[in-house]
Amino acid sequence: MPKNTRSQKRPSSVDVARLAKVSQATVSRVLNHPEKVEATTRERVYAAITQLGYVPNQNARQLVSGRSNVITLISGPLENPFFVDSTAAIVEHATERGYKVNILFANDIDIHEIYKLALAQRPDGLIMSCILYDDPIFEQLKELNIPFISFNRRHQEKLNYVEFDNFLAGRMVCQWLKMKGYQSLFWVGGNLKASTFLYRFNGFIETYRQLYLADLTSDIIYQAEHLDEEILLSQIMQWYAQTPGKKAIAAATDSIALQLLSLLKNKGIHCPEEIGIMGIDNVELAQHAYIELTTVGTSHNLGEVAIKLLIDQIEMHDTQNIAITLQPEVFDRGTLRS
């Protein structure tokens, strides 16, 4: 008896549509944009897919859609908990929407080489947290037909970004420390070529002048592209020994604040009894019961907000500028005393 070649034929989306009693277009929507299809219809299609053992032809779907369903994320290093939180949120949401995420890790030194690698991959979209304030690659990004968005940091041209108000965040840190009765402040910041560090520092020093009627002098500022723990600790210990009054350190990021907690503990200096510490970002680790870092930030994950907007832009072919600045708030925990 001849073999039944028909029974061995690989099931197609037409077969799925016929079994589920829907159109082939509906099957396609369920596979590519399930959130746009009613739950009952989705369940019928999924049941038909399972019953038939249907496997979508990804290559065919890419040819039809003109997309690879790949997004490239350029993230900062994972020793910073901000990037741990944002990377996890970005990958989770992108996966839910049917996208793969290629992750490239960069710092401010090798960022231009990472850009070249990312753009050579021709992803459907580019999401990045490392763009510099006057980054020359920005002109190339505008010319390419690749949707992109930055989060946390932004370019000076204010195009396609999600951030919270960094100037206000720096301002709020200074106001909060003054309100808590701290008389002597020390600022620890980072690379002023990045909008986050630049605006947080500017907000802090402007408010310091207003509230403390003085300028931040170089001996109470540590600002470096790459934090040198030995130099930083030496400067802090000198300030601590020579400065009277209730003391606090304002850190430009929660990552820096967490480093400071460890450094001071190793020196036998207790927080908040002897030195208060306050950060900016509100990373998830800051809420840990053994840390309880007082910080300024937002309850929103900036990476998650950005990836949602980027995918919408990709799928709707929307070229409208995304410019979102969220308002920060104080999360008062345990690293400051009243």
Automatic annotation (TrEMBL):
Keywords: DNA-binding, Transcription, Transcription regulation. PROSITE patterns: HTH_LACI_2. Residues 11-65 form the HTH lacI-type domain. It comes from the Bacteria. Coiled coil: none annotated. The keyword Transcription regulation applies. GO terms for molecular function: DNA-binding transcription factor activity; transcription cis-regulatory region binding. PANTHER family: HTH-TYPE TRANSCRIPTIONAL REGULATOR GALS, LACI-RELATED TRANSCRIPTIONAL REPRESSOR. This is LacI family transcriptional regulator. It comes from Ignatzschineria ureiclastica.
